[in-house]
Here is the input.
Amino acid sequence: MRRDLCDGVGIARLLNATLVLPKFEVAAYWNESSGFADVFDVDYFIQKMSGFINVVKELPKDIASVEPFRVDCSKRKGQFDYIESVLPSLLEHHYISFTPAMSQRRDRYPQYAKATLCQACYSALRLTSSLEKKATGLLDAIPKPFLSLHLRFEPDMVAYSQCEYTSLSRSSVAAIEAARVDRKPWTGELAQIWRKRGKCPLTPNETVLMLQSLNIPTNTNIYLAAGDGLMEMEGFTSVYTNVYTKSALLNQEDFTRMHGNTKAALDYYVSINSDAYVATYFGNMDKIVAAMRTYKQMHNTLFLNRKAFAEITSQGLEGAELKNALWEVHKNDFAIGRGFALPDCFCEFEL
Here is the structure.
């Protein structure tokens, strides 16, 4: 949601349009409804964007009851031009609702649009005062120094990946099957090809092996930046025993009242302020955290290489030989503290 918001701001500047504070379509993630103001400081955002684009909280009365003309750019690929493709609709209908393209070359934006997008991403978005108070309290409660680990092994994540795993508990298998719906797992040779492409989330046990190959001590303080429903955690916590979660550190009554996106905001806040950040996947959370950590010159950021893990384990390596092979894959990124897939950052100018 944060990524799409930043994209929306940059596109509004390209089109010289006024931006209406967006409504988050969170049902796809957490089956709930909450808005921009539940997470971000609205007045601060509007103030910080002044001079870049005009932002309004509500629609003018004369069009408030009108349905916007919808423009879906999510499937557009290649050198997609918003001015050529979207501006005519905006000029004709005056009020449009659009979905940004999934793949964009933001580095090709004119400098004024880059500046606007970067102002939104890195300067204008801050949490509401109440949420930031919870976030700072959570950060203070974690023993220092600590590593923030973004671990993805929830039933819906595994089901979506279409990967198949052996040696999972019956409860995990049942949870995955319940989440699959019509996304059946790949089998046979296709399953191996899919795994070797790096498409399969690392299990907690595989993550332990990866961390040990990097010689990360088992007494390291680890904050688990993850959603509800992580599976197969017993093996992980039996090796890395100093594991902390927001559900354990926050007031339980307060925690249960929080929306999914506000919980994710806490993970984001902790992760951009942690001593180190390690991700087992490379999703939207990881991309935006890595970019912010780079912006803040906090380069202890690493993405575990799932593709290399699948290739190496398929060779039958075990024990010290396997750990040495995994170390060879990650040692350069680990030494300089920057992940192999760190996104390009073009926000190099003063904001």
